[in-house]
Write a structure and sequence with these properties.
- The structure is a single chain.
- About 30% of the residues lie in helices and about 25% in strands.
- The protein is built from 9 helices and 16 strands.
- Helix 2 crosses helix 3, helix 2 packs across helix 8 and helix 5 runs parallel beside helix 6.
- Zinc ion (ZN) binds next to loops.
- Zinc ion binds next to loops.
- GO terms for molecular function: oxidoreductase activity; zinc ion binding.
- Its cofactor is Zn(2+).
- Belongs to the zinc-containing alcohol dehydrogenase family.
Amino acid sequence: MRALVLHKPGELKLEQIPIPSCGSKEVLIELKTSCICNGSDPAILAGAHWETFPIVFGHEACGTIVACGDQVTQFQIGDRVAWWFTVGAFAEYVSVTPEHVAMVKLPETISDDEGPLFELAGAAIRAVEAAKIKAGDKVLIVGLGPSGLIMSQLAKNLGASTVIGWDLYGMRRELGLQLGCDGVFDNGACSVREAVINQFGEMDVVIDAYADDLLPGSPTLNDAIAVIRQGGTLISYGHPQQGRMIDIFDFQKKQVIMRGPVNDMQLVRLYFQKAVDYAVEGKLKLAPLISGRVSLDHVMDGLELVMNHPETNLKILVDIQ
Ligand SMILES: [Zn+2]
């Protein structure tokens, strides 16, 4: 089969390799469309987050089960599935052990193009669920990239009365409004602290969903903490290699509760299914996030777009077949 193999950081090659075997606890999945991850793929390519090589590159995929181990009970041949999290998305086939991941069946109403974006939805809902949003809460999403644009919709579905977002790029802010944000702010151009407090008051929940801090001056997270109410919740989701800076005094003074995304796999499976249900009901829209597509032999071109042109690119699909 054709597969894009990462031999070591920076060394990516399209090769012919054997179709993976399907063990008794595994399913073999034929992939049709995958997706470039805007955060982790560039990071893994650069040498972060991953230690064992070679690997088949990519992790956002969906496909149809074509072989099923005899100990697999939840899935069968013919099921179209998405899952969080394994590598191996940029190849014609991948074998996955369902008990090691959160795997969901995708109904027919979900297109092959939307399919791979469910990996992202399954990951993003872990952050929004960790916030334990209550009816009427005001939620700020810092960073309206692909994850933030999914989180903004999920926060509304989970009961938030007001959801607002910050982003440096106009295309992302515009899409945030289209997908249901009550307000969006350009944190590169205005004093977001004052603008948010004046228009929406203090926030109950802030979700940090941005990648690198691109702004000079005060770290972005300080502005986020400045608009959280006393005792509010900060969910940390974005994880730049250089870490995050915060004003710890402001954090302590406000008694901010900080949490990471849910990582208990049993819960992740439940939440992931909830995300699929929202999409089926039309309450989670993923197709608007697709901004382009490349073939398997042009993944580097797609990576270049998401890394160097975030102002015009969101999700880039990879056509496998
Ligand atoms: Zn990803």
